[in-house]
């Protein structure tokens, strides 16, 4: 198993987000958007530098990320670091009491950088009554702007 973009790494990132939003619970869609924003925070207004580089296929990342986050959540559930509840809106995930002490025991700089960005995201986008999906629209709008190029933006030699 590879450590990069594995269920364990995705679970670790989800755990950072769940711990930062504790006691608030998040669904998979919120975790997918927040995970992407945490890694690509430089794409957001006044966001800290991105942890991962921009790729031409960034918009396609969200589709792949959902499955990875779901697998990561299963790792967290088995380890007792997260729990799941059902609501009228679907499955909601939250950090357990053990999550914060587990994260504080980790000394890797990458984990510290994830925590810093998760803190920034939650303080910037996760206000009471705010739908995280609305806050992330600026990211998908930038992708759309990059994809939709008008003929006037192309040189004459291309046309």
Layout of helices and strands:
Layout: H1 7-21, H2 28-39, H3 58-79, E1 82-87, E2 90-95, H4 97-104, H5 109-125, H6 132-135, H7 137-147
Antiparallel strand pairs: 1-2
Helix pairs in contact: 1-3, 1-5, 2-3, 2-5
Structure overview:
- The protein is mostly helical and 159 residues long.
- 56% of the residues lie in helices and 8% in strands.
- The protein has seven helices and two strands.
- The chain has a two-stranded antiparallel ribbon with strand order 1-2.
- Strand 1 (82-87) and strand 2 (90-95) form a beta hairpin.
- Helix 1 (7-21) packs across helix 3 and helix 2 (28-39) packs across helix 3.
- The N and C termini lie far apart (47 Å).
- The mean pLDDT is 81.
User: How much of the residues is beta strand, in percent?
Assistant: 5-15%
The low-confidence parts are: none
Classify the helix fraction into a percent range: 55-70%
Backbone shape: globular
* Structural class computed from helices and strand pairing: mainly alpha
Task: Please outline what is shown here.
The chain has 159 residues and is mostly helical. Helix content is 56%, strand content 8%. Strand 1 (82-87) and strand 2 (90-95) form a beta hairpin.
